[in-house]
Specification:
Mean pLDDT: 88
Largest sheet: 9 strands, antiparallel
Helix content: 10-25%
Distance between the termini: 6 Å
Strand order of the largest sheet: 2-9-3-4-1-5-6-7-8
């Protein structure tokens, strides 16, 4: 049986008092702010603008790309380097590059049945959790109120028929735990239909960048005789988006 779920590797910087409303109403991302931030976070690489696309298909970013969304009082960075087993060890250059009030990390990898989240307040670490269904990499800080139903066993793992649960299994799936953190803090989930007041992540645009080792980036397009490249408008997101993954948290052959 194939593993199904959403891959994500994101960190959010939040100052807005109601970030969910900001994200729900966002129709574009600030290219200038995104370009400045990608250069600040990845100074050892050259970022070439790629275009805008939805976070639903950008959060599971590969090593060659970075996606950034900049909205009033909310910024998100999607980078593969954020998927670390111990989120509390992320450097301050990533946990508070914008002097934000709140920083949220949400990451998951369905291929390894792994999920993680973390929270910083004014740069001070408060909470992190990172695990697969049978192994906890990190569980630090005081659990948050919204976590209660997970630890109480209200979101049990579902195994295929004939598969016995591992005696060391958690009472929930870490990917579902991470999705719940994302919904609590940011108002959406990557898998399944939106719940209640949640919004569809297909509607939230982010700016894409292809990352190159300096000197290996392609030449600017439309280079004129004087050596200056003509600036082109950023491409819009494609009209058709990939279907969102269905909600299935755990499977084994």
């Amino acid at each position: 049986m194939p593993v199904v779920g959403a891959k994500a590797s994101t960190i959010w910087y939040v100052d807005a008092p109601d970030p969910i409303s900001v994200l729900r109403e966002a129709t574009t991302s600030d290219w200038n702010a995104a370009s400045a931030l990608v250069g600040r976070l990845y100074p050892h690489l050259t970022a070439v603008p790629l275009g805008q696309g939805p976070i639903s298909t950008s959060a599971g970013v590969d090593d060659d790309h970075v996606f950034i969304g900049c909205y009033p009082g909310v910024t998100v960075v999607c980078g593969s380097n954020l998927s670390v087993p111990t989120p509390s060890t992320l450097p301050e250059s990533f946990t508070r590059p914008l002097a934000s009030e709140h920083t949220y990390l949400v990451a998951s990898d369905p291929q390894h049945a792994w999920g993680a989240f973390a929270y910083w307040e004014r740069g001070e670490f408060r909470r992190s959790f990172s695990a697969t269904p049978v192994y906890i990499y990190e569980d630090a800080g005081l659990p948050l109120v919204w976590e209660r139903s997970f630890w109480a066993g209200e979101h049990p793992l579902i195994y295929p028929p004939g598969v016995m649960p591992d005696p060391q299994s958690l009472p929930f799936h870490p990917q579902e735990f991470a999705e719940a953190a994302n919904a609590e803090w940011l108002g959406f989930r990557y898998t399944g239909a939106p719940h209640a007041d949640e919004f569809d992540p297909d509607t939230l645009p982010v700016c894409g960048f292809t990352m190159y080792v300096p000197g290996q980036e392609p030449p600017p397009p439309n280079r004129s005789a004087n050596g200056r490249g003509a600036q082109e408008p950023m491409p819009d997101a494609p009209d058709e988006q990939a279907p969102r993954p269905k909600k299935r948290w755990f499977s084994r052959k």
